[in-house]
Amino acid sequence: MIFRLPPSPLRATLSGMKRFWPLLLLILAGCGSGDVTIQVPFVRLFYVGSGTGKILSATSADGVNFTEESGTRFEKTGARHPDLFEPVSNQFVLFTTKENRLFKATADSMNSTFTEETTFDWDKGGNSSTHAITATGQDESGKTTTTIVTFHCADGIIKRSNYSTSEGSLSVNARALVNSHGSGVICDPTVIKKEDGTFLMFYRWAPSETSTDAAEQKIYAAESSDGLDYTAGVAKKTEGSNFKTVATNVVRDQASAPSAVKTNSSKVYLYVQDGTGSSSSGLIVGISKDQGENFSFQSVAITGLSTAKAQDPHAVQLATESEEVVP
Predict the structure, then answer these.
(1) DSSP run (H or E) holding 97
(2) Are the C-beta atoms of residues 211 and 186 closer than 8 Å to each other?
(3) Per-residue confidence at 70, pLDDT binned at 50, 70, 90?
(4) What is the per-residue pLDDT for 82?
(5) Which residue from 157, 147, 96 is spatially nearest to 122, judged by alpha carbons?
(6) Per-residue pLDDT, 140
């Protein structure tokens, strides 16, 4: 039989998979002629422990049921909204937000304890989400380029800044999405790239800058052809656990802090902070099989959750979904 290891877009090495070998060998030894599904973590979820300033993490093989990892990834009084990215191979950066400022910490692996970089100073907005944006025509030559872009909230809108891998710093570039809702503020951006090369941004609308109640907030979608400039997307509204196209483009009512990942099978997992009080973990996830057009939501379960509620989720894809061992 043939065993297929899931590829990792975050450059997971074979040595990083050592903890799975005993389990995999046992499964393979017991295999007969039938197929076996191997469950390995494919999503790591970072979140804030309610009222703690601690950034915690958990992993999941199905994107819904998680197990909290031991230890604290980062701790700073008042820290919120973790934003993790890998600008250079095996060098991870974690942004957190406090009072509309970004703080930076680094580590050589995602499940390590991050160390704050105290020389980093950024007071031009927070609640960031950083992505490697690859698109055609971002320079004068029209060639395909990749830019590490940090989307963040400032002045009631969503702006974008470029992250320099050589200097480890941010520079303000331009606005990414204006508030077209007629009132309130927009914040908490998260971006995915669709199969057709266009981009989709999910973001939060709130009635005011000081609004902290997720029950009065909503998640919307916006679209972009180049991954940099976004406009309001198609109209969607919740209908049961799914959506229908209507006059408003609400993706999810009573929710905040969206974070999305798109798997290799083109599913989109949209994690949000629950504003209804129905999720025991504090988080819910919407799963879309059509690249973000329609979602089905359910509660996120976190075994071993060491805090009353998880807040401000940030999802990172580790691998593809469960792979099969085939004869």
Answers:
(1) strand 91-98
(2) no
(3) very high
(4) 98
(5) 96
(6) 58
